[in-house]
Sequence to fold (358 residues):
Amino acid sequence: MVRIVGIDPGLRRTGWGVIESDGVRLSYVASGTVATDSGSQLSVRLAEIYEGLNSVLRTYQPTEAAVEQTFVNRDAAATLKLGQARGIALLVPALSGLGVAEYAPNAVKKTVTGNGHGDKAQIRAMLRILLPRAEPDSADSADALAIAITHAHMRRAARLQQKLKQNGLGGGRLAGAIS
Amino acid sequence: MVRIVGIDPGLRRTGWGVIESDGVRLSYVASGTVATDSGSQLSVRLAEIYEGLNSVLRTYQPTEAAVEQTFVNRDAAATLKLGQARGIALLVPALSGLGVAEYAPNAVKKTVTGNGHGDKAQIRAMLRILLPRAEPDSADSADALAIAITHAHMRRAARLQQKLKQNGLGGGRLAGAIS
Fold:
């Protein structure tokens, strides 16, 4: 059994979602959003994200973490803001000794909806199927759950690949098996 | 007496410098560089910056903090990296309850060298005059000391301004007095 926290970082809203995987089935544990006050000092907002995520880790005790790779765009000021929030999202699980995987938004969409261009509605629809008990309170916590699901699939794929190797089978077959 | 930590954040090297100001004179306390291993996971490197700065705060117990505003450039990937490191630099003093001031690189250069385009050599030269005991171990720790000096000057200027206001004098005179 592995318990995974997925994090979708943002300075204004950081989504988080915790799921469990027994290697075959996924189950929903909890999800939520850490919101910060845009009127506060930047350092205070980052501390709020830190405290919020720390509290999630203390409460739900995940064993692995996955963070969405920030979409790097042309707006340098926005990229910087997101980078600062993302730094905290990567830091908090690392300080608790958790491995932190990173997934590009495309990889997450592809895992959850089957193609790299799935929109928010498609992600929500797949969440209802994969984690029927989930009630994400924001688009950010829905994304965070999708990231956690992506990590569960990726780590299972990596394990399968390892097993196939031990049995003298190539990885080529696996690509078909998990696609 | 105020004890100020200046921080020049970077993913590879984060410079820090601690100074004291009694409102008139500055004195050097300590400075150094937190370096991270570029071969490590991003989350681990951010945790190294966190631990390093935390240790500086525990050891030197500053009462205020100042962080350089990141230079936002056109390289979005570099901006994102810097943003992540900068998030940690803002977070650590905020978690200790310190106010965190931010200064643009130009403001720091102008304060320390007299114009906004002072180069690294000029900053070093002024450091030798303002903090003769300082022996920064890198360009980053030299910059961090320059940021701490900038904060000492800015807070003194703000206090003077307040006093002048209380005495019914405008702020216009002050601009001349501290330039």
User: Anything to note?
Assistant: Residues 171-179 of chain B have pLDDT under 50 and may be disordered. Residues 73 and 79 of chain B are 7 Å apart (CA to CA). Chain B has one domain: 2-178. Strands of chain B lie at 2-8, 13-21, 26-35, 64-68, 100-103.
